[in-house]
Design goal:
Number of strands: 4
Strand order of the largest sheet: 2-1-4-3
Number of domains: 2
Radius of gyration: 41 Å
CATH topology of the largest domain: Helix Hairpins
Bound molecules: zinc ion
Strand content: 5-15%
Shape: rod-shaped
Distance between the termini: 13 Å
Structural class: mainly alpha
Length: 237
């Protein structure tokens, strides 16, 4: 086999490693981003619950104030009763006190209902907060794993990049350019074996004369179908 063929095969093996490593890194970064999004979503839900809780609490505060006022009205009306002289006035004040009492009852019911809602919201918030903490813990530990993995791949890629550079320099420039373009366009497979009249890159049948010529000169050719660089393993044909 010609030297340049072996060089390209070695180069491609290295390139495929590098491509694989970069893809792994990309996947890991995507996973990291997904973890962050999950936590952000949960945080947004908690923020929303906090807003709802604040609104209900404010409403409840207003209602409590109104209740205190009505209770005062009841007390005032009842305090006046002993001093009243006429039956008519007595009944009027009694009615006033009753109306205020009825108001108090309504307001108290409203407060009770609000408290119930508040409790539900608070329980829901506590639950979400716990979920977030658990998620955060898992995310942190997974994120550390991912970071370590990324560093490991970085290291191995940088040493492979160096190796690749040294190897690529040995390939004639024009051939290297062709190889680089094919590697990009043909999904990381630029050079493939031609075996039994077939291109192992695209699996298309090669014209017999073309294949026999390749057998004779044992060099490189382009597949007439996919354009990949073709070589022949002498002993296997
Ligand atoms: Zn082909």
């Amino acid at each position: 086999m010609k030297e340049e063929v072996q060089l390209l095969i070695d180069l491609q093996e290295l390139d495929q490693h590098i491509i694989k490593g970069r893809k792994q890194q990309e996947q890991l970064r995507k996973e990291q981003a997904r973890l962050a999004v999950q936590a952000d979503k949960l945080r947004a839900v908690i923020d929303q619950l906090d807003e709802q809780i604040a609104t209900v609490e404010a409403e409840c505060g207003e209602t409590s104030k109104a209740l205190a006022l009505e209770q005062e009205n009841v007390a005032k009306a009842e305090a006046r009763l002993p001093e009243i002289k006429t039956q008519k006035e007595y009944l009027a004040v009694l009615k006033e006190a009753d109306t205020a009492k009825k108001q108090c009852k309504d307001l108290q019911e409203k407060i009770d209902a609000s408290q119930e809602v508040l409790q539900e919201l608070q329980d829901n918030r506590d639950e979400k907060q716990q979920q977030l903490e658990e998620l955060q813990q898992n995310n942190d530990s997974r994120s550390n794993e991912i970071e370590a993995e990324l560093v490991k791949i970085d290291k191995s890629l940088s040493s492979e990049d160096n190796k690749r550079e040294r190897l690529a320099k040995k390939v004639p420039e024009q051939l290297r350019k062709t190889y680089d373009i094919l590697l990009q366009r043909r999904n990381g497979v630029a050079i493939v074996e031609a075996r039994r009249y077939t291109c192992l890159g695209c699996n298309m049948h090669l014209p017999p004369q073309f294949f026999n010529n390749m057998l004779k000169h044992q060099g490189l050719d382009n597949c007439p179908h996919c354009n990949r660089l073709l070589y022949i393993q002498p002993q296997e044909n």
